[in-house]
């Protein structure tokens, strides 16, 4: 490639890098890795919001400006799903009915499927080499007996979406290994070590058609 590489980071507070003070999270560390690997300028744009769900991301992609930016992208990372589960958990606490998780799982599957379809469609109109990284969920609430089950279910959906351009990035393994040592104060968002784990998982995620 002779032109600049466009990297769009889509998603929730993980993409924003919330958690540790004076740290920008994984996006810019991964962007720097791309610069060093590809030996080309990488133009990075973050499209993320605290609390964003998979449904919110679908809605955001209806914006014509964002659609244009995604169509031009060579690298796309996506963090989404955690807030879907947090909302389902809140509903479960109010009703004690596990159907809230079942509904959230079905909607998550539909939203991820629709999201990738839209990206494929946009990229077909702007046919340049590209790849997508679906960043998996980790478990910030291991003390809840049902948390690992539903997080693994959501991760299975992300993993099922792999294709020639899509790779799933596993976070459960490294975050389980480090436990609370990978989380910032408050126990939900990663700390510096946690974001380094995400960057490393992205780097190790495999095939890069831009090389």
Automatic annotation (TrEMBL):
Ranges for domain SGNH hydrolase-type esterase? 9-197
Q: Which InterPro entries match?
A: SGNH_hydro, SGNH_hydro_sf
Q: For this UniProt entry, which segments traverse the membrane? A: none
| Cross-referenced Gene3D superfamilies | SGNH hydrolase (3.40.50.1110)
Protein name per its UniProtKB record: Lysophospholipase L1-like esterase
């Amino acid at each position: 490639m002779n032109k600049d590489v466009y990297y769009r980071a889509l998603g929730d507070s993980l993409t924003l890098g919330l958690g540790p003070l004076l740290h920008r999270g994984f996006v810019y560390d991964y962007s720097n890795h791309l610069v060093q690997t590809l030996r080309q300028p990488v133009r990075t744009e973050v499209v993320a919001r605290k609390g964003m769900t998979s449904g919110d991301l679908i809605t955001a992609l209806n914006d014509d400006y964002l659609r244009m930016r995604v169509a031009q992208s060579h690298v796309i990372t996506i963090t989404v799903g955690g807030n879907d589960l947090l909302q389902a958990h809140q509903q479960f606490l109010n009703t004690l009915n596990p159907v809230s998780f079942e509904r959230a799982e079905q909607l998550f599957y539909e939203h991820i499927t629709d999201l990738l379809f839209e990206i494929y469609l946009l990229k077909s109109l702007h046919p340049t080499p590209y790849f997508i990284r679906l960043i998996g969920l980790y478990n910030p609430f291991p003390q809840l007996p049902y948390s690992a089950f539903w997080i693994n279910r959501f991760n299975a959906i992300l993993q099922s979406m792999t294709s020639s351009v899509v790779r799933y990035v596993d976070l459960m393994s490294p975050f389980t290994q480090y436990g609370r040592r990978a989380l910032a104060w408050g126990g939900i968002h990663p700390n510096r070590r946690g974001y380094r784990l995400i960057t490393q998982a992205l780097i190790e995620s495999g095939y890069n058609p831009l090389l």
